[in-house]
Design brief:
Shape: globular
Order of helices and strands: HHHHHHHHHHEEHHEEEEEHHHHHHHHH
Oligomer: single chain
Strand content: under 5%
Number of helices: 21
Mean pLDDT: 80
Radius of gyration: 30 Å
Number of strands: 7
Low-confidence stretches: 92-102, 186-197, 480-484, 545-560, 571-579
Largest sheet: 3 strands, antiparallel
Length: 579
């Protein structure tokens, strides 16, 4: 029998005596250090976990109420320890009553009570997730803590708990308060200030740069440092990139990237950290180990004229990105119709390989050499029956697809964030909801307690109606010109020309439906074609131009008031002027 291994600082793999002898590690191995405290996975449970895919491991950890954050080895060990403890508790017959999340129900109740007792102490509440955060932590760190804690106290995970819903609301408020403090600052403004608000897009935001730095930004592909001087850009380009409203091109590899896909480094410890555009006007810590020094992000001065130009530039750029995405979706749909199911796609690839239009065999990945003919490719296909080689090549392809999908998702997230930040930069106009992506619209609908099913124009219609009602109620309660100030509900016939899409004639029917839904116009979803939608938008746009002479005076009969009431009811059916 082989001697116990002494691996206590590295996994038991090729250099481990137990692993070489193909036997499981015991309690006498690892210099008698407890198995939970060493990175060993050479046990029955450990080998079972090693055979699982990363996505399966993360799902199992979330189901168990454990953190899904960490590298591959950490996640495997965490799940193996959980499985081992579960097996021991079940074999001893002392199994605690557990809920759907895998954590004892009594512990869950204690956690929820602790959350409710500390309501208002936002950093403390999120730190109950096990991940210590502060009010200065970055949004990415706050989001991780929020996900960990909400996975334990969410009402869906605690069906029989009365306090679960209240605890979850406290957790959600803690995250929103720390991640987006400026939004609550606006809510807390005095009513006297609300009556003098102008359109949000005309308001200029300024702050000092005390404790702020021009942080290091690197290209996500080649790692070259991005600097405004070396790129020939204005200094304020740093503002626009960090706010998430513009993307720029790397001077080394010509990759176009934004703040969500770029690599950011802490100015104190020089280690990388996750950045979110909502952190731009905050002072944060990087969250790396012992580095607790706060820092902010520098804000260069921008003239009012340049702000107007940038507002138009980012709107046009966002429209171009949206058109590109729509074209890609249409091409993908046409390609699916042509190719059909997966088996048909495989046959097409095999035919292309036989015609030497593909360099690699779609079954095993064999690369055809230069000089070989079509007959050689057909001969290879006829004899390509090695199932093991097929499975290895499929696994390799699946890994490549997963990597490609991850990059694509990161780019889409960047574009969704850019669209949302552009919408915010343009004053949160309800009439510009068409600029947002479907994922962002779903999130906004969830915030307002709305249904999230349906096409994009339906989501916009629901969201626009609720926001307009909220603003109308605020106007009625606080005065003619007052409002919550969070959104701009200017109707289509009063907005500036620059607020509308650049070229409506070039837009598709679906895109025009989204624009019409944003401005609250009535249209027939099934019958109205592109020409009908264009006419309705143009008619609504010119609505007020012919009424100036009629409304110029009041003959005492109340015609002016009735006309005003009719206009407001057309803009919002739920709004009525007091008689």
């Amino acid at each position: 029998m082989s001697k116990p291994c002494r691996c206590d600082s590295k996994p038991c793999a090729s250099g481990c005596p137990c692993f070489k002898a193909k036997i499981m590690c015991t309690d006498n191995c690892h210099r008698k250090v407890p198995w939970e405290n060493v990175p060993c996975l050479n046990t029955d449970v450990g080998l079972k976990v090693k055979g699982m895919k990363p996505a399966e491991i993360r799902k199992a950890l979330c189901d168990a109420g454990l953190s899904p954050v960490g590298d591959k080895g950490e996640l495997q060990k965490r799940l193996a320890i959980h499985f081992t403890k579960s097996a021991k508790s079940s074999s001893s017959g002392s199994v605690e009553e557990k809920d759907s999340g895998g954590q004892p129900a009594d512990n869950r109740e204690d956690l929820m009570n602790a959350i409710l007792e500390n309501e208002g102490d936002f950093a403390f509440v999120l730190s109950l997730s096990g991940k210590i955060v502060k009010a200065t932590s970055g949004k990415a760190e706050l989001r991780k803590a929020y996900f960990l804690l909400s996975s334990k106290v969410h009402p869906d995970k605690n069906a029989n708990s009365v306090t679960s819903k209240k605890a979850f609301q406290v957790v959600l408020e803690a995250f929103e308060r720390l991640a987006n403090p400026e939004k609550f600052d606006e809510d807390d403004q005095d009513d006297d200030e609300a009556g003098t608000r102008k359109r949000r897009k005309t308001e200029r935001f300024t702050r000092d740069n005390k404790g702020c730095r021009v942080t290091s930004i690197c290209c996500p592909r080649c790692g070259d440092r991005w600097e405004t001087n070396s790129q020939g850009l204005e200094e304020a380009a740093y503002n626009f990139l960090m706010q998430g409203i513009k993307q720029y091109i790397c001077g080394g590899c010509f990759l176009k990237f934004g703040c969500m896909t770029a690599k950011h480094s802490c100015p104190h410890c020089r280690k990388s950290f996750e950045y979110d555009p909502d952190d731009y006007h905050r002072k944060i810590t990087c969250g790396n180990g012992k580095c607790e020094k706060e820092f902010g992000f520098w804000m260069f001065k921008v003239s009012e004229r340049r702000e107007r130009e940038v507002r138009q530039e980012v709107k046009e750029e966002n429209e171009a990105i949206a058109r590109k995405r729509a074209q890609q979706r249409r091409r993908g749909a046409r390609a699916e119709k042509r190719v059909g199911n997966v088996s048909n796609e495989d046959r097409v690839k095999e035919q292309l390989f036989a015609l030497l239009l593909l360099d690699t065999c779609p079954r095993c990945g064999w690369e055809i050499e230069r000089g070989l003919k079509s007959e050689d490719a057909k001969e290879h296909l006829a004899g390509c029956n090695d199932e093991k080689a097929h499975s290895v090549y499929k696994a390799k392809q699946a890994k490549e697809r997963a990597s490609k999908d991850a990059k694509t998702k990161a780019v889409e997230t960047q574009e969704e964030t850019q669209a949302y930040k552009t919408w915010e930069y343009n004053g949160r106009q309800v009439g510009q909801l068409w600029m947002l992506g479907e994922g962002t619209l779903v999130k906004e609908c969830k915030k307002h307690g709305l249904e999230t099913e349906g096409p994009k124009h339906v989501l916009i219609s629901r969201l626009g109606q609720v926001i307009r009602s909220m603003e109308r109620r605020a106007i009625t309660a606080a005065g003619e010109e007052a409002g919550s100030g969070l959104h701009d509900i200017t109707p289509i016939h009063k907005v500036d020309e620059e607020d509308l899409p650049q070229n409506m004639d070039a837009m598709t029917r679906d895109e025009l439906q989204c624009v019409a839904a944003s401005y609250g116009l009535k249209y027939d979803e099934k019958c109205d074609v592109k020409v009908d939608l264009l006419k309705k938008l143009q008619s609504a746009r010119l609505k007020g131009s012919g009424l100036l002479m009629i409304l110029d005076g009041d003959d005492g009969s109340g015609k002016k008031r009735k006309r005003k009431q009719q206009e407001d009811e057309e803009e919002d059916p739920d709004f009525k002027l007091d008689e």
